[in-house]
Structure formats: C-alpha cells, structure tokens
Amino acid sequence: MSHDSDTGAVSDSFGSTTTSPQAALAGINDFAEGFVSYQTRAVNVLDTADAHPDSALANIYAGMLWMFLERPEAPEKSIPYAQRAERVGGLNARERGLLALLQAWQQYDHQQVRAIGTQLCADYPRDLPLLKIVQYHAFNAGDASLMLRLALAAEPHNAHLAALHSMVAFGHEQSHHIAEAEQAAHRALAIDPNEPWAHHALAHVHLGRGTGNEGLALLQASSPSWDGLNSFMFTHNWWHVALFEIARGEVVSALRIHDERCWGVQPDYSQDQIGSVSLLARLELAAVDVGDRWQALRPYLETRRDDVIQPFLSLQYLYGLVKAGSAAGDELLALIRAQADSPVVAQDRDLWRDVAIPAAEGMVAHARGDHERAARELASVRGQLWRTGGSHAQRDLFEQVLLDARLRAGHWDAARKTLEHRRQWEPDSPILQQRLQDVYRHLGH
Predict the structure, then answer these.
(1) How far is residue 115 from each of residues 98, 109, 112, measured CA to CA in Å?
(2) pLDDT category of residue 2 using cuts at 50, 70 and 90
(3) Phi, psi at 11, each rounded to 5°
(4) Is 107 exposed, middle or buried (0-12, 13-18, 19+ CB in 10 A)?
(5) In angstroms, rounded to a whole number, what is the distance separating the alpha carbons of residues 105 and 99?
(6) pLDDT tens sequence across 360-417
(7) Element (H, E) at 224
(8) Reported pTM
(9) Residue 85, C-beta contacts closer than 8 angstroms, at least 6 positions apart
(10) Which residues of 57-83 are buried (b: 16+ CB within 10 A; e: fewer)?
(11) Residue 299 three-state SS
C-alpha cells in the first residue's frame, strides 16, 4: 500500500490514486493485478465491492467484471455497482472517467467507451488495467491500430512490466507487424518468462510466419505456467497448441487437447464456448469424426439463443447450435436477421446488415450441407469480417468454412487460390497438401 505524497490518497499497485478506503485496497489490487495477468483473484473485487459500498473504485471494477460476462444480462448485473459508485461522491478525475466508461459500456455505446478510454489512457499512462480494458474494446471493434497506438504510448511509463510489452506485442501482431510483435513479446519474457499474454502473442507470430513447429515447441514448453490462470487464458493458449497440432496433421492430439484443456474448464463462459465450437469445426474440416461432442456443447449454447451482443461470438454460437441439431439455432438465426431492422445494439445495425447477417446465413448453410449458398454468402463478406472483431487466427474459422464449401461445391479454381495462399503459413500441413493434390487433379493439372 502506498500514498500519493501530495494528496494523501491511497494508490494501487500501478500507482493510480483512489478515494477508496485503505481496507478496500487489497481487493482493488486483486482486480488490477489479476485482470492484467489473467489470474483468478480478479474476481475477489466482487466481495470487496459488497463489503465496501464506500469504495467507488471497487464497485466500478466489480461492474466491469460483470460486463466481461459477455451475456445479455451483463448490464443488469453490472448497473447496481455503477449506481453504488455514483452514490459515493467525491470521486477523483480518474474514477469519474472510469465510471463514465463503465456506464457507456453498460449501454453498449462502444464508440463512447473507446473515446473515453483513449482519453483516460492519455491522462493515466501507468494504468495498465485501464489499457487492457480499452484494448479489449478496440479488439472487439477490429481496431488494431488503436490497440497498438495506446500500448506504444504507455510503453515509456511501464517499460519494466512484462504485461505492457505483451500488450504492445499483440497490438503489433494484429497490425501485421510480425517482427515487431516478436521483439516485444521477447522483451516481456525477458522480464517474466511466465507472462501468458506474451506466449499468446508468439503463438500468433508463429502462425503468421508459417513456423508452426517452432510455435508448438514454445507453447508446449510454456504450458505448465498456465495452470491456475483464468479459464480464458488457460483454454485459449491450449487452443493455439491445438491449431498447431492440426496444421501438422496430428488431429488425434488436437482432439485430446480439446477434451482435456479447452472444453469443460468453465463451460458456461462465452470464450470457452466459442473456443470449443471453433476447434470442433476445424477438426471436422480436417475430416475428424468428433462423435457426440456437439451434443455436449448443446445445453450451454442453447442459453445463447437470444445473444446478439457481439456478432463475432453470435456467429459461432449459431454454428454450434446448428451442428448440434438444436431448434435454438433457428431462434438465434431469426434474431440475427432481425438485427438489420431493430438491433439490440443500435451502433451495430450496419455491421449486422452488411457483414454479420450474410456470414450467419453462410455458416448455417455450411452446417446444413448447402455448400453453394455457404460459398456465395461467405465470399460476399470475406473482406469485411474483420469488422466483427476477433483475431486473425479466430476469424480464420470463417475462411476455412468458405474453403470447405468451395471444395464441396466444386469451385476448384477459387479453392486452389486459397490453398496456395494458405501454404505461406501452413507450409508443412499434410492436410493442405492433400487438398491441393485433389484440386489440381480436378483441374487436370
């Protein structure tokens, strides 16, 4: 615990002052440090907020934690904490800014969240939890430039912290700066070899560079340090391991990783669900029989039948529901179609109409075996899918479904172009090589 020498205010572990009582500081730091490092202790701030209604910051953080639930009911869970923080009074400028950001988030005013967050990051460059939150929102908007710009601006103030260099690394990678991403990730690991977001950034680096075997070795060596992290970081880094295994043709290993490391850790959580959907889909595209695993997801995905908060997530919920044969898939598809006229999130109307609805039609068509339509719909939005959010690696699911649809529909030349392009980052993939041979055979080459 430290104090600002001028104001006497309590400061958190990143040097940010707060009007909160000292007794709330441990829970505040649990969130600040745990959130940045993907540790489960971040959730301790919920108890702290309830125990200290006089701590605006603890309640603001608790409200943010509920918004990370990524479910339609998240605002309902979150708003009471914002109201409690508002009642405290006497907040400092940073706390007022964080409260305004939270309230905009609760309204799904994504543009305002990014605007407030950008200004706060400029005003408080040492506030890494804030930077992480704003990067999350930029990521969901497909705005890699903002992710990188904010992280680079914070770098001179936090050069001693591994987490900062990891955020720089991922911003670079999402901006296609592969060499710079690798350098920043290794700066992070030089400070803390167990920094999980640096491992994650390097997984993306090796995927983009086509050095999957090197990436696999790095992740396997690092994996013991992921035990005990929150479900997102644990399952997502293992998801990357599974992708490298599929690229090597080691599909049995990838399926085992799905069962033991990617699914079942926190099955009601959005990111665990889409990780499983994405991995099962990729395995099926690699001609793997996944058995009854879609049925295992079904009850969890059926709770998403009314979830159109984030198009990127909804597209994957939809695909999983249709693959599982659930009637909830039709309910979700109807709701997705309605977003063109009466969107739940008003700012997303154009995104749904122009990109996500055609993508949803294409994903459903593929899941139901209508490959001509799947190819047509997905091809129509291929260059715009970045607008839905997600990383290059995550959005590659849609690219792979489009490729499979083209192959099954006999669109041989279009498939050939895609496969030749994919050889850049899967040069040793036996699955890709076999597909290319089949395509060239059909083309008479």
Answers:
(1) 12, 10, 5
(2) very low
(3) -115, 145
(4) middle
(5) 10
(6) 999 999 999 999 999 999 999 999 999 999 999 999 999 999 999 999 999 999 999 9
(7) none
(8) 0.96
(9) 56, 57, 59, 60, 63, 91, 95, 99, 102
(10) bbbbbbbbbbbbbbbeebbebbbebbe
(11) helix
